[in-house]
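Consortium newsletter contribution from the modelling node. Members have asked for a concrete example of what our holo predictions look like. Here is one, prepared for the flavin-adenine dinucleotide complex that several groups have been discussing at recent meetings.
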Amino acid sequence: MKIGLVLGDQLSSQLASLRVLAKQTDLILLAEVRDEASYVRHHQQKIAFIFSAMRHFACQLQQSGWRVQYHHYDSQSNCQSLLEVVQQAMQQSGASELVLTQCGEYRLQQAMDNQWSAQLGIPVQVYADDRFVCDSTEFGRWAEGKKQLRMEYFYREMRRKTGLLMEGEQPVGSKWNFDAANRQRYDGQPPLPAPLTFQRDEIDREVLTLVKQEFADHPGNLDDFRWGTTRAQARQALEHFLQQRLPYFGDYQDAMSSGADFMFHSLLSPYLNVGLLTALEVCEAAEQAWRSGAAPLNAVEGFIRQIIGWREYVRGIYWRHMPDYAEQNRLGNVRDLPRYYWDGQTGMKCMSEAFRNTFEHAYAHHIQRLMVTGNFALLAGVKPKQICDWYLAVYADAFDWVELPNTLGMVMHADGGYLGSKPYAASGNYIHKMSDYCSGCRYNVKTASDHDSCPFNSLYWHFIMRHKELFQGNHRMSMIYRNLEKQKDDRKQALWDRAEWLLAHLDEL
Ligand code: FAD
Ligand code: DLZ
Ligand code: SF4
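And here is the predicted structure:
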């Protein structure tokens, strides 16, 4: 008899390990444990979402005939790690083998590979996670010999492989990428759809009470918990997106607006990442929306690119370069994460909006993560480990394999430009162009070196100046360095001095 351990991000009925187990004889184990719930200070909504989705998934397995053992979170239990729960279940059941699907996170997979079999005294059989479009071997073949990777070329391979938005060998609309059409500012029209809400059942209520009691010191709160916790609700969320948001997803993909916490984004990442939806079903549904005339091509292509492009690409990089990837700090950053990343209190309106969004919903949309909180950490030279741990903690969709390359590579450029050829560093002007934040801010986005100037402005030039040696030869940045050269020395000095003051008083902004 075998035990199949299903992890909190493996809630898919087609999971590889489930396919090799037998309903009548084998036992499925799911476990809520302290070690997984606190290896970073996960947002309260992230824990509630995962625990409730695990409990619902266990019920679903039971209803379809599986024998299921469920370990509920218990702070007094002797079993605070997955290994301890497995050990106990093994002793009780006399199982002779443990079966798993490969973990999403390196830390846990390593522990399983190195210790579990010896400590349990039984074979541990791990099956590849085939819920992704591209596996490690295929990614390895594509990445082999390349010093720097380009997502765009990888993405085209995935389009060919899946046949999504293809006409024979050619991309539909004769272009692979419609990003140039996806940069509109949002001025209140079309109106934003009301977010979807779900009726809460007994399981949700129990979990919300548990999290409130046990994780009150974790970031965020549960007041506005909106996440679906079953596959059926995740499907509803997909339908809601296809009908109400996808048509405008492309146009406003990069836009930000006060109070518009979700813009026209899909909010599907948590469901994709825990396995309640698959990447292909979501992309096929989006393609169908375009083919039926319900959504334009720039929206559908942009959306599909995020999933079979970026999502698969970062996963490939993660598994190819862990564990060294997590240690990189190629810009030599030394600063601590400013206080407001945890308490949300800052006079910078763009940042305070992103933090409010984050703490209220365990969500912020991509451009807030990349160009506001991420950009600030890059310009301020925050230690990569600290900012990575923050992103891993505060979002409902955060798992190391997807969070780490996005933060360490895309945002912090700490991998030396392996993931992206140029840092996304930007001054306040970018935020001003793409949002309405600056008009309600204590700082002045039009100036750079006054006492009330937008911090992003001088920090941006400080970043450019302090990394001159590294970036001035980068042809994608040569114009920036030409602009810098044109500035008078006293202007450069004023920018430098203002930025130095800001860096010395980072926690006070
Ligand atoms: P949409 O904008 O509607 O996009 C659709 C889907 O595309 C998403 O659901 C997601 O599955 C995928 N996607 C989009 N961009 C990316 C990307 N860059 N990498 C991988 N998948 C992408 N995404 C996570 O799923 N987990 C994370 O922990 C995470 N951490 C991030 C950290 C930083 C610093 C940055 C800049 C981005 C991070 N992302 C992460 C990517 C992206 O911001 C989120 O996937 C997105 O905001 C989720 O919201 P959504 O479902 O509404 O996305
Ligand atoms: C994120 C998370 C949390 C908060 N809690 C659990 C848990 O109690 N049990 C579990 O199996 N998984 C949990 N997870 C998700 C795991 O951290 C995830 O399985 C690992 O990151 C491995 O990919
Ligand atoms: Fe952000 Fe600067 Fe605009 Fe204020 S002025 S909202 S700090 S970009």
